[in-house]
Amino acid sequence: MYTYFIVVEVIKIKIIKYGAVWCMSCIVMDNVIKQLSDKYEFDYISYDFDNDKDKFLNFNESEKLPIIEFVDDNDKVLKKINGEHSKSDIESILTSLEVKLK
């Protein structure tokens, strides 16, 4: 008799949004991500340009806000996007990264 083990690696995705309270696209993306958080399992972290300046040091100042990174549990950036995107765009990214449904 043989015993087989299937190893499944579960990666917890983090969505990190770098934005600003005065950025309308950032507010829109906050709402999109919060809607998707009801359906998908991910952690959401939001940094504000005026309050968290140290978090923006690795970005080019000409990058369009918001900057959104999809990060694995080893802090490796799997996908990065800039600007405003539709809910279906973000959902497609989550699906391609195989983020689990709740």
Describe this structure in words.
The protein is α+β, with helices and mostly antiparallel strands and 102 residues long. The chain has a single domain (13-96), classed as 3-Layer(aba) Sandwich (Glutaredoxin). Helix content is 24%, strand content 25%. The chain is built from 2 helices and 4 strands. The protein has a 4-stranded mixed beta sheet, covered by helices on one side. The protein is elongated, with a radius of gyration of 16 Å.
How many domains make up the coordinates? 1
For the record, the CATH class is: Alpha Beta
What would you call the shape?
elongated
CATH topology: Glutaredoxin
Give the overall pLDDT as a whole number.
93
The helix-strand sequence is EHEEEH
Query: Number of DSSP helices?
Result: 2
Report strand %.
15-25%
Number of strands: 4
CA-based gyration radius: 16 Å
Question: Secondary structure elements and their pairing?
Answer:
Blueprint: E1 13-19, H1 24-37, E2 42-48, E3 67-71, E4 77-82, H2 87-96
Parallel strand pairs: 1-2
Antiparallel strand pairs: 1-3, 3-4
Annotation keywords:
single chain; 4-stranded mixed β-sheet; elongated; Glutaredoxin; alpha+beta; 24% helix; 102 residues
Structure summary:
The chain has helices at 24-37, 87-96, and strands at residues 13-19, 42-48, 67-71, 77-82.
